[in-house]
Design brief:
2 copies of one chain form a homodimer.
Chain A lengths: L11 H8 L3 H9 L6 H14 L5 H8 L4 E6 L5 H16 L3 E6 L4 H14 L3 E4 L7 H9 L3 E4 L9 E5 L1 H14 L5 E5 L5 H16 L7 E5 L5 H12 L9 E4 L2 H13 L9 E6 L2 H5 L5 E4 L2 H17 L7 E4 L2 E3 L2 H4 L1
Parallel strand pairs in A: 1-2, 1-3, 3-4, 4-5, 5-11, 6-7, 6-8, 8-9, 9-10
Antiparallel strand pairs in A: 10-12
Chain A binds a DNA duplex (16 and 16 nucleotides) through α2 and α4.
Organism (chains A, B): Nocardioides panacihumi
InterPro entries (chains A, B): HTH_LacI, LacI/GalR-like_sensor, Lambda_DNA-bd_dom_sf, Peripla_BP_I
Protein name (chains A, B): LacI family DNA-binding transcriptional regulator
Chain lengths: 342, 342
DNA sequence: TTGTACGCGTTATCAT
DNA sequence: ATGATAACGCGTACAA
C-alpha cells in the first residue's frame, strides 16, 4: 500500500463537489448538523474523510473577526515558576475552549516585541504577559488598539489594563522576619539587578523588616547579581564564602529559588554547613526547592492561581462589555524547611 | 488627556480613506515601499499610526495559503528537559522569521489531540511534537493531510515523517557501565512505566550492560514508578530505604533527573549517605542536576541541538520539494559527579 | 506612480 | 432541506 501525501488541502468547495451537494450544505453539516438530512450528512462526511478536509482557521477567524486563542508571553520558560503559572492559564483556557499559545521572551525586549507584534496581528482574544519592562509604552499601545492585555506577576497602577501579582514587599518581609526570629543578626540579600521590579520589592520588604526590628542598616548586606539564575547564585556563594567568618552573614535571603539553589550548592562545596553556618531562604517555592538535599525554606506564591486569575480577567475583558480593570494582589506565605531550621 | 480604546481595528481600506489614497497604494506601502513616492508613503504611514492599524494575519495567511508560524507540542512543560529542547527550536524559528507556538499536552492524549487539531486548522508551517504515543495513527493522518510533522525525542521507523532522538539504549548502557566500573554489583533501575518508550529503552540499555558484564540478572532490580516526577522518585526512595542493607542495591540508575532528585532527597532524609551507601545516576543532565547539594551524575543529552535539528527538518520539509524523511539519532554522554564518585 | 478588480475559505442570509 | 451569494481583509495582476 502506498500512502499518498495530499498536496493541497481540500476546501469546503471541493467537499461539496465530491459529495454532489452545494457549498452551503457542507457548511451546514459543519455548523448546524441538525438542519441537514441524515443521508446527505453522511455523504458529506464521507467526502470530507476521503479528501482529508481540515477547516481553515484563517478563513474562519477572518470571517468571525476574532480567533479562538489566547497567548501567554513568558519571561523565562526555563524557570519553573513561570511554567506553573502557564499551567494555571492553560486550565482556564481549556475551560473556555480556547487554544493557549505560549511564547518565551527569554527576558529579551526585542524577542518580546516580536512576539507581541505577531500576536496582535493574529488577533488573539487576549494577551497575558510577564513583561521585561511593565512600564513599556508598547503595552499601552496594544491595549489602546483593542487587544485585551493582562500583566502577570507585576502590578501596573493606573494603566489601561488589569494586572495580577503577588505582594513581593510582604514576601520579602516574611522571609527576613523569619530569619530575625531564628536569631540571625547579619543577613545578606542575594538578588538579581534591582532594576527588576520583583527583586526591588523583595529587597524593600527585607529592609522594612530589618528596620522595624531596630537592627543596624549595615548588617543587611546587598549581594547583587546579574540575573535570577542558578549560575548567579553560585557566584554569590563564592563571594559569601570568601568573607571571614567573623564578618560573614549567617543567613542569606535569595531573590528566587534558582539563586538559592546555586548558592546552596556553592556554599556546600566551599565547606559551609547549611543551615548551621549559613541559613538560606529562597523565593517562589518551586518544586525543586523542596527536593534540594537540604530542603529549602522559601516564600511560596500561588502560582497556578496567579495564572488562572489572569486568564479569567483577560477573558472577562474580551467578552464582557462592562469590564472594569482591576489589580489583583495575592498574598505569599513562608514555607519553613531545613535550610533555616537546623 | 483621555486615552480612547479603539473599538474595531482599522483595515487597509480605512487607512486608504484616511490618507486619501487608494487601497492598492496602502498595500504597496506595506509590501513594496520602494514603489511609492516618499510623500505619499509618509501620508499613509501617518494614517496607519493615527488609526492604530494592525495587519490582519488571518487575511494574510488566507491569501498566502500558509502561515508564518511553527508549533511544538511539549510532553511536559514542567520538565526542564523539554523547555531546553523548546529553546533550541525557538532559536531556529527566530532565524527563519517564524513565530513559535508552544503547546503543552501535559502527557494527556486528549489534550494533545485538541492541540493538534487546532494547529492543523491553523495551517502552521510545521508541527514538532514529543508525543504521548509515537505510534498513534493520528500522527500519520496529520502527515498524510499535508502538515510537515517531526517527532522529537522518539524514533518512529518507517513512518511518514522525520524524527530526532537521542540513543536511549546507549544512554542506559553508559549509566550502568559506569556503575559497574565503580564496583557496584547490586543496582536498581528506577523508572516510570515501561510503556514510555524512553524508559523502556534506557532500561534495555541497562540490562544490556549488565548481561555483557556477566552479572546475575536478578541483581539488577526494577523499581517501577507511575511517572517521571520528583514525587515518584521520593516514593521510590522510601521503598529502597526500606530494604535491609545487606540486600539493598548500592546504586540506583533513574530514568530521569526529576526521579533522581526525588530519590536523592528521600534517601538522604532516611539517613542513607550518597554516594557511600547509595550511588545515584540520573538522566537528562538538567541544570538542577548539577545544582543538587550532592551534584548528580547524569546522562547528558544535547537538548538544544535536538530542538534545532528537529526544527531544521520540519522547515526543510515545509519548503524543499526534494525533502527526504530521515531519522536523526544523537549520542548521549555520561557526566560523572559526586553522586557516584564518593 | 497609482487605482481597480478579483480570489483566498468560511459563514450567514436569503431564496428556492 | 438545500442552493446561491455576499462579505470578512489582504495581496496582486493588470489597467490607467
Amino acid at each position: 500500500m502506498v500512502i499518498e501525501r495530499q498536496q493541497l488541502s481540500a476546501s469546503v468547495k471541493d467537499v461539496a463537489a465530491a459529495a454532489g451537494v452545494s457549498l452551503g450544505t457542507v457548511s451546514n453539516v459543519l455548523n448546524r448538523p441538525d438542519r441537514v438530512a441524515a443521508a446527505t450528512r453522511e455523504k458529506v462526511e464521507h467526502a470530507m474523510a476521503e479528501l482529508g478536509f481540515v477547516r481553515n482557521e484563517s478563513a474562519r477567524s477572518l470571517r468571525a473577526g476574532r480567533t479562538r486563542s489566547l497567548a501567554y508571553v513568558m519571561l523565562d520558560a526555563g524557570n519553573p515558576f513561570f511554567t506553573d503559572v502557564a499551567q494555571g492559564i492553560e486550565h482556564a483556557a481549556e475551560g473556555a475552549e480556547l487554544s493557549l499559545f505560549l511564547c518565551n521572551s527569554d527576558s529579551r525586549a526585542t524577542r518580546e516585541a516580536t512576539h507581541l507584534e505577531h500576536l496582535e496581528q493574529q488577533r488573539v482574544q487576549g494577551i497575558l504577559i510577564t513583561p521585561v519592562d511593565p512600564d513599556s509604552p508598547a503595552l499601552d499601545a496594544i491595549a489602546r488598539r483593542g487587544t485585551p492585555l493582562v500583566i502577570v506577576d507585576r502590578i501596573r497602577k493606573g494603566g489601561a489594563f488589569c494586572s495580577v501579582a503577588v505582594d513581593d514587599v510582604l514576601g520579602g518581609r516574611l522571609a527576613v522576619e523569619h530569619l530575625i526570629d531564628r536569631g540571625h543578626r547579619r543577613v545578606a540579600f542575594v538578588g538579581g539587578p534591582l532594576s527588576i521590579g520583583q527583586v526591588a520589592d523583595r529587597y524593600e520588604g527585607a529592609r522594612l523588616a530589618w528596620s522595624t526590628a531596630g537592627l543596624p542598616e549595615d548588617d543587611l548586606t546587598l549581594v547583587a547579581g546579574e540575573s535570577l539564575t542558578v549560575a548567579s547564585g553560585r557566584s554569590a556563594g563564592e563571594r559569601l564564602a570568601g568573607i571571614p567568618s567573623a564578618r560573614r552573614p549567617t543567613a542569606a535571603f535569595c531573590a528566587n529559588d534558582l539563586i538559592a539553589l546555586g548558592l546552596l550548592q556553592q556554599a556546600t562545596t566551599a565547606g559551609l554547613r547549611v543551615p548551621e553556618q549559613l541559613a538560606i531562604v529562597g523565593y517562589d517555592d518551586i518544586e525543586f526547592a523542596a527536593a534540594a538535599a537540604v530542603p529549602l525554606t522559601s516564600v511560596r506564591q500561588p502560582r497556578q492561581e496567579l495564572g488562572r486569575a489572569a486568564a479569567d480577567l483577560v477573558l472577562d475583558e474580551a467578552s464582557n462589555e462592562a469590564h472594569h480593570h482591576q489589580q489583583v494582589v495575592f498574598t505569599p506565605e513562608l514555607v519553613a524547611r531545613a535550610s533555616t531550621l537546623g
